[in-house]
Amino acid sequence: MTKTKTDIDRAAEKCRRIARKHPDATWWWCPYHGDHVLKMTLGEVLERIETILRTKPRGELVCRLNILRPVLHPRRLPRELVKALAVCDEARDARSKAWAAFYDRETVKTNAAYVKAVNAHFKADVVYRTIAAACEPRLAALHNEEWPDNTWNGSTIFGKKGGEDGE
To answer: Kind of pairing, strands 69-70 and 27-32?
Structure first.
């Protein structure tokens, strides 16, 4: 069912209000349709809300905005998941630095460093996603406890309650 502009506006304002109510939250449920939990700053979350409103299909907006919520008990997230994401983030940062060095000064050495950094980030991301999949039952239990009306079905935000927009 396609939502009206009023439904979308209400969902967007509620999402912004909840985000601002938790300015110190560092983990967020479902910022992307296939990511159950990610680490984000308040600024990144507010930017994500605007990106959703600007770029996503109208029929998905309310569902996406209604499920983007802070993790209320981050200490209860699986430690192995938190550690794997930290390693993945470090590898991503190293990739970004290697790209900047290559972009600034194209040489065989900077190209090789960039390729090495890309491969390291890819491997770290695979490890993170493997751990996230293994942790899914614990994540789902925590998510359902914190936000029982969520539409996460184990792999995407679209489906728990049926239909494209979660209804």
So the answer is: antiparallel
Q: 3-state secondary structure string, 97-145?
A: HHHHHHHHCCCHHHHHHHHHHHHHHHHHHHHHHHHHHHHHHHHHHHHHH
As a 3-state breakdown, the chain gives helix, strand, coil percent values, each rounded to 5, of: 65, 10, 25
Domain boundaries, the chain: 79-133
Topology, domain 79-133: Helix Hairpins (1.10.287)
Query: Cβ(110)–Cβ(102) under 8 Å?
Result: yes
Mean pLDDT of the chain: 91
Q: Which helix (H) or strand (E) holds 70?
A: strand 69-70
pTM: 0.82
What is the per-residue pLDDT across 107-159, written as a single tens digit (0 to 9) for each? 898 999 999 999 999 999 999 999 999 999 999 999 999 999 999 988 888 87
